[in-house]
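Hi R.,

Quick one: here's the Alanine racemase sequence you asked about.
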Amino acid sequence: MGRPSRVRVSARALAHNLKVAQRQASDSRIMTIVKADAYGHGLEWAAGVLEESGAHAFGVACIEEGIRLREAGIRCPVFILEGFFHPDELRAVQALDLGLVLHHPEQIEAVLEEGTEAAPIPCFLKVDSGMHRLGVSPREAPLHAERLARSPGVAWYGLLSHMARADTPDDPYNAGQIDCLRRVAAMLPDGCPLSLANSAALLALPHSHMDWVRPGLMLFGASPLEGRSGAELGLEPVLHLESRVIAVRHLEPGQWLGYGTGFQAEEPVRVGVVPLGYGDGYPRHLETGTPVRVGDKPTRTLGRVCMDMTFVDLSSLPEEGEDSLVELLGPGVPAEILARGAGTIPYEILCGLRNRLRRVTQ
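And here's the predicted structure, written out as tokens:
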């Protein structure tokens, strides 16, 4: 019932992509990153599939996402990648057995003070190895790490950092970050587990894998590497963005379509009107020619994307018309293609899909 626009997500494809990560980093434990509503795929659904498929832990951005996972019955360790924003959050962290990635001395002191031997707080310490976003300095990290590792109120998981240029694996900056984290660990009397590799590093930089890897985007079938598609990497799109044609219009040469001067017909054009637009997260600045599939056949968009509608070219598809299925994102139209046309990255395309879209799980 209702508008025919929907997001369809595949548990089989998600489990397949996790297996790709497991094969690529077979000696590492897998912390699957499901922040931002699992990159637009549905947090609780994705985490349930990944836990059943063998994920060892989850990474989320904030405590609200961690609470949602526990309320959904997720039992694996859950780490809040930005730590906590106020000391009062530590009560909820302890009550729900959530883990923290600590990146600031004040967070460290609060955990050392509040953690108890009866309920130790799982913690990674984040080291700034070159991203210069969050993390303690490599010089200060050994002292903080030793204190955390010795504390009975901390369940010590080790050192964690984040790669800045792994999407361009030949960049020598990557080797510098890997060496930095290993040097910090070598300063600790007993060493410790390490985590550095994101999706791009997991796929292209095997010497970055270490004890934990943290795949995110690749789990959902999109490529994190410049110039490579998800299909080339053995990944399958998890998300299908679909709708149906609700009206067919005919343009004569010289007639304009939609808002402004987005498209003018140079010859007779048969137009399908699709009830999905930038109000659903389909980027407004995609231009005429963006690939779509109608009835499993390739065609293109026409004119400007509206808030609630998009136009597709049916001129070469006489058998297609009202009620024809339209794929705007999925195996036939990968996120990388849309991202290129919108001047952005696949992450933003997937995370930008709105909750007003009906979601169907398979």
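The chain has a mean pLDDT of 97.

Cheers,
M.
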